[in-house]
Amino acid sequence: MAATVYILDDEPNILTTLEGCLRDEGFEVVTQSNPLAIEEDLERVRPDVVLLDIWMPERDGIEALSIIKAFDPSIEVIVITGHGNIRTAVEVTRLGAYDFVEKPIDLDTLLRALNGALAHRGAERPAAPPAAGGIAATPGRASRHQRTLRRSVVVGGMGLHSGEKTGLILSPLPPGSGILFTDINRGDTVPALVDYVDTTGFATTLRHGTTVVHTTEHFLAALSMYGITNLMVKVHEELPIMDGSATEFCRVIEEAGIEEQAAEISPLIVEETHVVGDEAKGVYLKVEPSEELIVSYTIDYPAPIGQDTYTFHATGPEAFREEIAPARTFGFLKDIAKLEQMGLGGGGRMDNFILVDDEAGRVMNTELRFPNEFTRHKILDILGDFALLGRPIV
After folding, report:
1. pLDDT greater than 50 at residue 118
2. Rg (CA), the chain
3. pLDDT band at residue 163 under the 50/70/90 scheme
4. Is 0.85 surpassed by the pTM of this model?
5. What is the pLDDT of residues 306-355, one digit of tens each?
6. Which of 37, 75, 281, 362 lies at 20 to 30 Å from 190 by C-alpha?
7. Which of 117, 120, 118 has its CA nearest to residue 2?
8. Could you tell me if 171 and 118 are in contact, meaning their C-beta atoms sit under 8 angstroms apart?
9. What are phi and psi of 81, to 5 degrees?
């Protein structure tokens, strides 16, 4: 039996358009323009998913969302609005909405949200091809199950370089979807894949057309180490820096819970040694065969950082959470003016990065969490960038 979608919107043209499109996709569709009829409709229709306009004169969409969740918490709600922002998105997600879609509605974005909501609910849905940027994995040697989060969660914070308040809405996605960054205002999507890397100066930036996502590495490292392969990440341009580490991302993943999916994903198997850079001069990246993912990083900076080597065995989320995730990003006092001239570093605060005065040979603003916190943080960045390969590495 096809899944039932209930659409509540006070604009008749939107109801007509969405009803036609979704019926063509194989859904059962019921529409309503009067938000005061929602209680009666819920009893009669008992939908799998509700598409809910958040701005309606007769009844506020926040109130309608609360009514839906009180009637049946298992009904998934996708909020649609033409006047949204990150604060609205955070509020409706905390109230139980599965996703948040901006008007004018892009059909591909809406279908991704619908299929994700139905997969989360466990309802039957029409067959659909994988979302753009998806992973076409073939089970093979050392294959493992794909994973997503059990439920949607919200993360708030500040962008390190923009200096603006920002946030993330993390929503489960079906197998084969991949990690998708979606602009919370426009609905445009950037897959978390190396093909979409735009710049790597001071942070990793992804771009697809005019859609840009900055500072992805800490977050992607956490997803990778927890084995999350399918996730919708709603964001506006820059991910929050949190305390400069990945600890909060670990907490959020564990709070949401991890769902193992039936589909498998094959890791990338390194069969031979590859070197990028000049190994003789000590400035290089070497990848060589191993039975497990091991990252060894050597750092060589003036005091107080000095020369250090740290080796991380990626044996699972626990090792990452304890050894690598707490290591914070760092910057040099001499670079502050340069960053400001480039329009970067506006969100740098004394509690979200390590400020180093290499001329005086001291850390200026905090106590280190590890004697080799700088080296560990470099490994965090590398793990985040490796995640852009779209598959685990062995």
Report:
1. yes
2. 23
3. low
4. no
5. 999 999 999 999 999 999 999 999 988 877 756 555 444 444 455 678 98
6. 75
7. 118
8. no
9. -160, 155
Amino acid at 123: A
Q: Are strands 76-81 and 99-102 parallel, antiparallel or unpaired?
A: parallel
Residue 364's region, left for phi above 0, alpha for psi from -120 to 50, else beta, is alpha
Longest pairwise C-alpha distance within the chain: 75
Calpha distance 330→80 (Å, rounded): 39
Rounded Cα distance, 63 and 277, in Å: 58
- pLDDT tens for residues 215-230? 999 999 999 999 999 9
Is the CB of residue 122 less than 8 Å from the CB of residue 131?
Answer: no
What are the residues whose beta carbons fall under 8 Å from the beta carbon of 163, sequence distance 6 or more? 345, 346, 347, 348
Question: Please, are residues 384 and 213 in contact by the beta-carbon 8 Å criterion?
Answer: no
Identify the architecture of domain 274-386 in CATH: 2-Layer Sandwich (3.30)
Provide the token pair at 3.
Answer: 């899944």
- pLDDT higher than 50, residue 24: yes
Pick the CATH number of 144-264 from 3.30.230.20, 3.30.360.10, 3.90.1150.10, 3.90.1010.10: 3.30.230.20
Map residue 125 onto helix, strand or coil: coil
